[in-house]
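As described in the Methods, two query proteins were run sequentially through the folding procedure within a single session, without resetting any intermediate state between them. The first query and its resulting structure tokens are shown here.
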Amino acid sequence: MPITLSDLTLDVPAPLMALIEDASVALAQFDDTAAHHLGEQVHTLGPMSAVLLRTEATSSSQIEHLTVGAKNLAMELLHEGNSENAAVVVGNVRAMESALRLSADLNVENLLSMHNALLSSQPGWERYAGAFRTQLVWVGTDSYTPRGASFVGPQPELIDACMADLVLFLQRDDIPVLLQCALAHAQFETIHPFADGNGRTGRALIHAILRNKGLASHVVPPVSAGLLHETDQYFAALTAFREGDAAPLVSVFAQACQFAASSGTELITQLEAQLTYKAAPCRSA
């Protein structure tokens, strides 16, 4: 039975709030930097905006142990690939694109559309795409029994009410954006509304919220890369959230956003330096 978030009163310790604020500033600065260097009018680095989105989708998939090389992913995006993993990761790219496109209205219908974009590309799972599950799900053991599972999702008949509460929570504007992102993501994972693809859809939801709230308006910061950097802590924090302690989750999420901002900025800086160097005219001795 997930808690309700829509009317939750939050009392955040000062050190944790400071961490949230620092990460928020770093993410906003990265978004401004990226907008300046990766804007569509910038012919040299403009295409990197799409690469950042694909990097985020790939990192999110890798958290689920779905890996694919850059070449195979590119071939699949051109409809010329034959890798099943690449097809699944392309589904995650489509889910990310859908999340950004639909971010202006964070409602249940659009969340279903995000999931449809994800699972429609996953062989064997097409009939589950864009629909809430009707069966029990669990994590951490075999597919035959939930005995020994690390997490068992709520009964299917609870999903509609839980998702309606989550959407109401997303409409609140009295909460720091990164705190809202962290709690909404953890709540989504706890509801586990789909037969498959919950983690990837839940991480796409993070970017829909960041875009909706204006904290990352121009590009996709590689937040999942930060979560991938500390996967064990990330999963442990989700467990702590389900047991009533949200502090570890918020801390892990803020650190992932700091990582996203710093690594993203470093990537842009290095690429710009390389392109500037190669574009420099040769000088005769």
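Immediately afterward, the second query was submitted; its sequence and tokens are:
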Amino acid sequence: MSIILGIDPGSRLTGYGVIKQNGRNFTYLGSGCIKAIAAGDDFSARLQTIFAGVSELIVQFQPDMFAIEQVFMGVNPGGALKLGQARGAAIVAATNTGLSVAEYSARQIKQSVVGTGAADKAQVQHMVKTILQLPGTPQADAADALAVALCHAHSHDSITKLSGQASKTVRGRLR
């Protein structure tokens, strides 16, 4: 059983999603947004809000794993820089508590949750709602963060299975 905290970073809204994984079963524990907008135009205050918010989530949910979406380089380099700094604030909050950080591209996340790397936000929201059996559709940033957590669960499962098969193969050869 593992508790996974997924983060969809943003300089104004940072989505978070927390799930519990028990084998192939997932349980929704919580989701929402850290609103750095309240800090106004002071960017350093927004970064502090993100850091404090993620730190608080880690204390509240005690996750075993932390996953975050990578920066997508769009047409606005300034926006990508701010997004990278927001990611950094969240990552430092995780590493300060000893959590290792897993990073996934938007395409990897969509592929893992929806089945296509070209999925739109509505498709991600629908699949997150379906997979976690939620009564309603989560807010877009929260759904993206839950998708990050689900992607990590699927990736971690695959790696664990592959390493288990590799060790069985090695043991089989040694006998």
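The longest helix spans residues 140-174. We note this only descriptively and draw no conclusion about the first query from it.
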